[in-house]
From TrEMBL:
Amino acids binding FMN: G19, A20, S21, S45, S110, T111, G112, S113, R145
GO molecular function: flavin prenyltransferase activity
Function description: Flavin prenyltransferase that catalyzes the synthesis of the prenylated FMN cofactor (prenyl-FMN) for 4-hydroxy-3-polyprenylbenzoic acid decarboxylase UbiD. The prenyltransferase is metal-independent and links a dimethylallyl moiety from dimethylallyl monophosphate (DMAP) to the flavin N5 and C6 atoms of FMN.
Tagged with keyword Transferase: yes
Source organism of the structure: Vreelandella gomseomensis
Binding site for dimethylallyl phosphate: Y175, R191
Pfam families recorded: Flavoprotein
Reactions listed under catalytic activity: dimethylallyl phosphate + FMNH2 = prenylated FMNH2 + phosphate
Protein name as catalogued: Flavin prenyltransferase UbiX
The Flavoprotein domain, residue ranges: 13-196
Keywords (A to Z) from UniProt: Flavoprotein, FMN, Prenyltransferase, Transferase
Keyword field contains Transmembrane helix: no
InterPro entries in alphabetical order: Flavin_trans-like, Flavoprotein, UbiX-like
Family: Belongs to the UbiX/PAD1 family.
Length: 219
């Protein structure tokens, strides 16, 4: 797939939003991946659509083609840069290890999705895509947002961590002296981008002096 300049997009990154609080993290991540010229493959669960409508002013259609158009308009993506897949789209490239390789981020990750991935349930495309990422030894970052964690949640996180999954809880720090909610969102998204090896200017790395920068959009 190529961008408007006729050059290929950078390797795809799969982003899945599930039904935990923190939809803003996933939406911001998609925005920054687009800005970094990566192809972005998106899956949004039914519960995540409800969370997005509850937590934000963003309204996204459920139908994959229309969802891709809406996200493209919101992020300024080039034609074809964002691809969206439905709950049971088993022909999607993320459904098989023989499909195109892609790092994957589940952000936010509900504890139900955490459980399903930890036990290999694969009852929907998000769970199957995560299962593929694990078996193919690809980068998988899961961003749980729950408090407190029960022993069940912690055991599932330990199981996944031992399999090489990055467990990155949505627990923003404050040493960068955030002034707005957007700064807290970017704190977590910066950590995700670090795990993906994607450069960013969201905030200075530890020991650097420059002031945090923000390129957030309204909505």
């Amino acid at each position: 797939m190529t961008n408007a300049k006729g050059t290929a997009f950078k390797p795809p990154v799969t982003v899945a939003l599930t039904g935990a609080s923190g939809a803003q993290y996933g939406l911001r991540l998609i925005e920054l991946l687009v800005a970094a010229e990566h192809e972005v493959w998106v899956m949004i669960s039914k519960a995540a659509h409800m969370v997005i409508a509850t937590e934000t002013e963003v309204r996204l259609p459920a139908q994959p083609e229309r969802l891709a158009e809406a996200l493209g308009e919101r992020t300024g993506a080039a034609p074809g840069q964002i691809r969206c897949f439905g709950r049971e789209d088993w022909m999607a490239p993320v459904a098989s290890g023989s499909g195109a390789a892609s790092a994957m981020v589940i952000c936010p990750c509900s504890t139900g999705s955490l459980s399903a991935v930890a036990t290999g349930a694969s009852n929907n495309l998000i769970e199957r895509a995560a299962d593929v990422a694990i078996k193919e030894r690809r980068t998988l970052v899961m961003v749980p947002r729950e408090s407190p964690f029960s022993p069940i949640h912690l055991e599932h996180m330990l199981t996944l961590s031992r399999l090489g999954v990055v467990i990155l809880p949505a627990a923003p720090g404050f040493y960068h002296r955030p002034q707005r909610i957007d700064d807290l969102i970017d704190f977590i998204v910066a950590r995700i981008l670090n795990q993906l090896g994607i450069d960013h200017q969201l905030m200075p790395r530890w020991g650097e002096d420059q002031a945090p920068t923000s390129t957030t959009k309204d909505g």
